[in-house]
Structures are given as structure tokens and as C-alpha cells.
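For this section, I looked closely at the sequence of one protein beside the C-alpha cells encoding its backbone, which the following lines show:
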Amino acid sequence: MRIIIALLMLSFLMLNCKDKSADKNEKRVDIVATDSTVSNLGKDSVLLAMTKEVFAAFKQKDHSTLSTFIHPVEGVRFSPYGFIDTSSDKVVSAEWIKEQGDGKKQAKFVWGTEDGSGERIDRTFDAYIKDFVYDVDFIQPEKIKVNEFIGAGNSQNNLLLIYKDSDFVESHFSGFDKKYEGMDWRSLRLVFKMINNKYYLIGVVHDEWTT
């Protein structure tokens, strides 16, 4: 009888230890997930989740949150069109973006040149985001892909050449007004680079039909 009782107690202790171990593992997964790493999650899931957060920051003009996604060394480059011009597209740091939301009046900067007219894109940060980044509601796209291009116009797409060893997410709308027969499509590509098992934003590429 004593042997039976001892065996039952031993079985209970083993099951209890197993349950505690499972609880610890679940907590570890939660910590990893909130740190936006890919050790326990699929790459696509992490990139899509980060894209949604970045879009929300753009939409809400949440400069402080947006700054936390920016690459700490390389910063982030903003490209108004599909062709990335490294000589004129503006590159800014996380700290610079954070400063745009501190209540001070934003200064205007040149972000490139407008397609067709060739005029300078002279905008404050928020105005540039409104006109050349989040000009449609990309957080709820018609299509979204990881490392796959969707929108294609008549301008050269050199993203893979400029951003080697990086990943990107494209959010896309095929058009809005039937009379334009798809010529009013929009795409926004967010380019991410990994450091120490964590992704950071290094490129924001807006694309549309150009003349």
C-alpha cells in the first residue's frame, strides 16, 4: 500500500513540474513576440505585424512610436516614387523623426522632385507623409505581399539593387476610379533590415503611375 501511495505522489509531482515548464515556455514565446524578433515566429508574420504598426503611426502622426522602428545606424530613406534616387531622396534618423512631434513648428525640406513637372518636393515632414507616403489608407490594402512586387508602372523599380540583404512589404491598391482604368493605382513598400535578430525600417518607397 505504501508503495502504491508513493508511486501516486511521484506521478503527481512529475505532472506538476511538466505543467510549470509549459507555462514558462509560453511566457518566453510572448516575450519574443512583443520584441518583434523572428526566433520563434515566422518572418512574414513579424514583417506584416510591424508594417501594420508603422502604418498606424503614419496615419495617427505618432512620431514618437514611428521613431522606435527606424534603423539606429542607417536611419530611413523616403522615396516619393518607385525609382529610388540615392542622390536626392531624403534620409533621416529616428531622433529627427521624434523631434518632428515635439510641438514645434516643422521646417520644410526638399524630398526630391515631382514626376512630370520636375518641381522640388518642398514639404514639412507631416505634409510629405500626407502627399507621398500615406496618401491612401494603406493599413487596409486591397493586396499585401512580403518580398513580392505587386504594383508596376513605367518607372524603373530598383529596390532590390539599392536594398540588398533586406526584406520588404508592399501594400497595394489597384485603383479607385473606373474612368482611369487602373492608372490611379498606389503602392507603398516598407523596407526592413535585421540587426541582432530584430527588424528595423530603412526605406519607405511610395509608388504610382508616372508620366
In short: The chain has six helices and eight strands. Residues 42-208 form a domain with the Nuclear Transport Factor 2; Chain: A, fold (CATH 3.10.450). Strands lie at 76-79, 90-92, 109-113, 120-123, 143-146, 167-173, 186-195, 198-208.
